[in-house]
Amino acid sequence: MAVIQGWIDRHAGHRGGAVYLEDARGTGTLTYAGLRNATRAWAHSLDRAGVPPGARIAVALADPLGYAAALVGLLGAGRVVVPLDAGAPTAELARVLAVARPAAAVCDSRHGLPPGLAGLTVLTPPDGPTGAGSAGAGSASPGSASPGPVAAPAAAALAAVPTTGGGIFLCTSGTTGTPKGILLGEGQLSHVAAGVAGHHRLGPADRGYCSLPLFHVNAEVVGLLATLSAGACLVVDRRFSRRGFWPLVGERRITWINAVPAIISILALDPPAARTPQSFQGVRFVRSASAPLPPSVLGRFEDAFGVPVVETYGMTEAASMITANPLDGPRKAGSAGLPVGVELRITRQSGQRPVTCRPFEVGRVQIRGAGVITEYAQGGPAGAFDREGWLDTGDIGHLDSDGYLFLAGRSDDVINRGGEKIYPREIEDVLLAQPGVRSAAVVAARDPVLGERPVAYIVPAGPCRGLGLADALREACDSALPRHKRPSAFCLVEELPLGPTGKVTRGRLREMAFGG
C-alpha cells in the first residue's frame, strides 16, 4: 500500500516547486519535486545495493533537514526506517541496533560513522545533505571523505525482511528498561498522519514549526507525514531555543507549532519584551504532546499570546496521536481531548475480566484501531493485548460525561501510601499553579511504615528560592489536598531530568528519592 509515495507523486505533480521542508537556521529547502527525485534515487540505489523493499535502514544524520529528507525518502522507497539519535552513547546505539537489526545505515560519510554502526553497509544521501539530487549511494568507513561502491548487505541482515512495504521501526524501553521493538507499517503511519492533518486542518498554506527530535514518533508522524499528507510546509529545527524564537516564528511565517509542555512553559514565562504581536499573529495554534500540560501553564500561555493551545495524547504504539482537543469546539484545560481515529475505553479489573468504567471513574486507558499495533515486534509487557485486540497503554485516567480524556499518570508512577493510591499529577497541578514554580514532579520515596510517600521536586521560577518557597508550597498543598496526598518533602533543584522530548525522566527522580 504505497500511500506515502502516492502523496509525494501527487504534490510533486501539482505543485512541484512548493517547499515541503525548510531549515529553520539556514537557507536549505526541499521542494516536493526534489522529494520525488530523492525518493526515486533512494529506490534505485537500494535496489542496486541489494537492499530490497521492506528491509530496515538505520538513519543517523546530524542535520535535521537531511535527516527528515532521508526518512521520508526511504519511506517513499518502500523501506523500513530505523531512526537513531546520532549523538546517543555507543551503548544506547548498540541496544537499539540489537533489537532493530537493520540491513544498512544512512550516515554522512564526511563525519564518519557514529559509534555502534561499524560493520553495517553504509549509504550516503544522494547528492547532498537533503538527498534531493538525482542518484548516488555508497559505502563509507569512519573518516572517509567520499563514498565508494555499494557493498551488498550480509544475508543474515536480510533474514528478517518482511514481505510488506515501508514503515518505521522504533525501539523504546518505557519505564522498565526492557527494550521493546515497535514496527509501524505504512498503513498505520498514513492512517494516523491523515487523521492529524484532518483534525488540525492542515493545508497547502500552512507552515509548521518542529524542533522535536526526528528519532521520535511525534516529529515523524505529526510533523513530517501529516505535513506531507496535507501538501504543506514544515520548518525543522535542530533544537528549541528561547532566544530569538518569536522573531524566527514571524520571519518564517509559521502557522502552527509542534511543541511539548516544557517548551510551552518556557515561552509562557518569557518577558513581554521578548515578543511582539507581529511575530505570532499568524500562528493558528500550538500543539502540546508527549506529557500532560498543567492547566496553570496553559492559562499563562494563552493569556500572554492569545494563541490557543491544543493538548493531545499519544504513544509510539499508536503511531503518535490518540486523542486531541478540538480546534473550534470546547478545549478543556487538563484534558487530553477526544479520541481521533481510534477506539478508547477506560477499564477496571473485576475478577478475571475487565469492566468498562463509568464517566469520571478512574481506570486503565485501553485503545485499538487502524493506527494501533496488534503485537510488539520484540519484547513488550506480558498481557498488553487482550483477545479483542485492545492494547493496555499503561496509563491511568478517566473520561468525563462528554467523552474527554483526563490522564492521572502512568500505572508505574502511582504512589501507594499505606494502601491509598496517589496520582502524581493531582499534586503537581497544585504546585505548578504557584507563581514561584517553573516546573515540578512528584515521585515515590520509601517509607518504613507506609511503604511509600510522595516527595516533590521543584524548579523555582526567578528569584523566589529557599525555605520561603518550600513553606509556601507546603501551605498550598495543605489547603488544596487531603492529608495523605501532601508531599512529605519539597526538594528545590536547578533542573528536572528530561528525556529528548521534554518528558520528565521519573526513574531518575525515583532513584534520588529512594536513595535519600
Describe the protein in words.
- The protein has 516 residues and is of the alpha/beta class.
- The protein folds into 3 domains: 35-199, 3-Layer(aba) Sandwich (Rossmann fold), CATH 3.40.50.12780; 272-411, Rossmann fold (3-Layer(aba) Sandwich); 414-515, GMP Synthetase, Chain A, domain 3 (2-Layer Sandwich).
- Helices cover 28% and strands 25% of the residues.
- It contains 13 helices and 25 strands.
- Strand 13 (309-315) and strand 14 form a beta hairpin.
- Helix 2 crosses helix 3 (64-76) and helix 5 packs across helix 6 (217-230).
- The longest helix is centred in the N-terminal third of the chain and has 18 residues, at 32-49.
- The radius of gyration is 23 Å and the shape is globular.
- It starts with a helix and ends with a helix.
Helix content: 25-40%
Alpha plus pi helix count? 13
Largest sheet: 9 strands, mixed
Shape: globular
In angstroms, what separates the terminal alpha carbons?
Answer: 54 Å
Mean pLDDT: 86
Please, what is the CATH homologous superfamily of the largest domain? ANL, N-terminal domain
Structural class: alpha/beta
And the CATH topology of the largest domain? Rossmann fold
Q: What's the alpha carbon Rg, rounded to whole Å? A: 23 Å
Name of the top-level CATH class of the largest domain: Alpha Beta
Number of separate domains: 3
Spans of 5+ residues with little confidence (pLDDT < 50)? 132-163
How much strand content do the residues show?
25-35%
The total count of strands amounts to 25
Order of strands across the main sheet: 2-1-10-9-11-12-13-14-15
- Using the 3D structure, state the CATH architecture of the largest domain: 3-Layer(aba) Sandwich
